[in-house]
Each structure stands twice: as C-alpha cells, then as structure tokens.
Amino acid sequence: MMDNFTPGPFAEELSAAGIPEHLHAWLGQFGIGALVVKMGIRFQEMSPGRSVATMPVEGNTQVAGILHGGAHVVLAETLGSFAAGMHAGPGRHAVGIEVNATHHRSISTGTVTGTCTAIHLGRTLATHEIVMTDEQGRRLSTARITNMIRDNIPEPRPKAAGQSVAGDD
C-alpha cells in the first residue's frame, strides 16, 4: 500500500519530466510511460483544463530530417490523456477513443511546445485540442483527442473456502 508521503518507484522519473509534486502520488506507482521518456517530453503545466509540455526535435525525426508526424501525435496524445486522467479523478480513468492531427509546417531543429486546452470535460467524455508550436510561436500542427472516462474495476475479493459466488456454476 502506498501513502501520499512515500515516493513510488518512479519518483525520479516524474521529477525529471517536470511532473508537479502534487501529482506524484497519482503517478508514483506507474510513471509517465517509456515512450514519453524516450521522446524527451518535459511537462511545464498540468491540469485538466490546460497542460503544456515540450519535446526536442532531435531524436524524433523521420528519414527526411524533419520531426516525425507520429511524434506530433505522441506529444498530443500524452498531453490530452494526462489531462483527461486528471479530470477523471480518483476511482476513474481515461481511455483514448479518438485522436487526429493536421500538420501545418515542418521543423528540423529545436524544441516543440504542445499546449493542450480542454474543449469538453464531461462525466463520460473529455475532449482536448493540442496545438504544437516552434520556438518562434508558429503553429506546426493541431490535434484533437477524445477520451472516454471509465470507473476503475474493483479488485475481486477472494472467496472463503467452500463459498460459491453467483456465476461460478
């Protein structure tokens, strides 16, 4: 069992990625995900309504030397999914059901900033728009992600010896 004062196994990873301290209890047992680490994504702001993160172009390019279109989508989905997860709150989780992106401009060096803004924060759906910009503030791509908000499935209780549970027959 983990309390809010004991750092989880991913405490160092969370700090390195810029995850605010107040979110460490939420993510401490799971981390931010191997792909987020590999892509070099660093969080600047995190809330259900607005999240911001950066990602280097270097190491995330395609064969022509420009930022891979999939890298745009990874940044967008990361921001939208974390924002939706925060909106879901305790006892619930977010599951991505749709993501799309339009690429407006290429970039071959520098840093990309993704700014995620809530479009709809409902009981069962959360939709966010994510705008990726370069260091001069020029729009590189626009993405939208919709997440379904689900209740966590409770852990099954162990049966006592000799006890049957409805549906076990």
From TrEMBL:
GO molecular function: 1,4-dihydroxy-2-naphthoyl-CoA thioesterase activity
Superkingdom of the source species: Bacteria
UniProt entry keywords in alphabetical sequence: Hydrolase
Pfam families: 4HBT
GO cellular component: cytosol
Ranges where the Thioesterase domain occurs: 65-139
SUPFAM superfamilies associated with the record: Thioesterase/thiol ester dehydrase-isomerase
Membership in a protein family: Belongs to the thioesterase PaaI family.
The protein's name in its UniProt record: Uncharacterized protein (TIGR00369 family)
Species for this entry: Pseudarthrobacter oxydans
